[in-house]
AraC-type DNA-binding protein
Amino acid sequence: MENWKIFIDFVLIAGMSLLGLFVVFLIKSKINFSQKLLIIFFANAFFFLLYYYAFLHKISFLAGVAILFGHGMGFLLGPVLYYQLKSLVLPKSQIVKPLLLSLIPFFLLKLFISFPLSIAVAWNTFETFHNYYVEADIYINQTENLYFIIYLVMSLNFLKKFNKLFEESYSTIGQNNLNWYKYLIYGFIFIIIIDVLCTVYELFYPMIPWNIGTLVAFGLIGMFVYLGYKGMFQSKILMPEFLLEKLSDSSVSPHSSEIVEQQIDSSDFKSNKPTDSFSPEEVDELKMKLKELLEDQKLYRDESLNLTELADKMGISNKRLSELLNQYLNISFYNLINDYRIEEVKERIKSEEAEKYTLLSIAFDSGFQSKASFNRIFKQKTGFSPSEYRKRNESSKVLY
């Protein structure tokens, strides 16, 4: 048991030390608004862990200080995490006011519960208030967990919307990949659910002899460190103005992953064609321009090609090109370009000179930016890994 206590101390102290280093590093660096939100997040998380440490060692004054600055974690971290994610894409002017409104429960809790509770714990005063709080603590904690989960779900929805809209303008995700945020959110949700289930269990059954909160704290430390590792170096993502408008709206245009050649060759028009937009003649003309740029000039081989650059080549705005792709061809820019890249890779694998080149060199020549993205997209589009596809093609040649 003594070894277990030493291990707990080590993990808590290590976690607080890392969080403290994150805060110091961010304060001393030239940081943007999203990183300032991380300072708030890590500072509150530091005092949350400090409370666990003080509780285990029965240090009343330290526990009081920790409660003052770390109590109500879910009411703070949920909104901060959500708006920190949004701040990576949207301007600060769209973040500050809704963030402050979402923190009203945290401020109320801090004023009417955390402040008097910290005094009661630190100086052993307000005994009546402290007793009332002990009775209500489980309900406050569950409300806090629910509030946190609501904002985590909102974060997932925003991330899903962002990914869909990002595909409208970029052919390569690269450093703008925010999938790491998805893993972070799932991790937090899992830990909170564990905490909720254990708390509900203890409402109806004998209390668990060891402190379940310690394991929850361990899990949270892992998430805090992961956020620090990824979040401190995540740069702001620049998107065209018209996409930012959509991101601020509740609606997102649907996408399709159908083969692009079938889309461009088709002369059919979608029934959801917006009024007063492209005429049938304009659509035919733009389809021809698009085919020429992609099939003849092979612009898709440019690994950094984006919607704006392609729109400039076509002589229209990026907003108009996005409308053409989404409304008339029913495909995202991301799928459009990568469909062409995959088709070229497949053709070169089938060619007689395929053995002279590695799969990676073929991928780079076709416009892919990295081995990881090439493997992932190829498997997604064909159902096979590049090496599997090449082996199947070689086998078919032998059989033939």
In short: The domain at 243-399 is CATH 1.10.10.60 (Arc Repressor Mutant, subunit A). The radius of gyration is 27 Å.
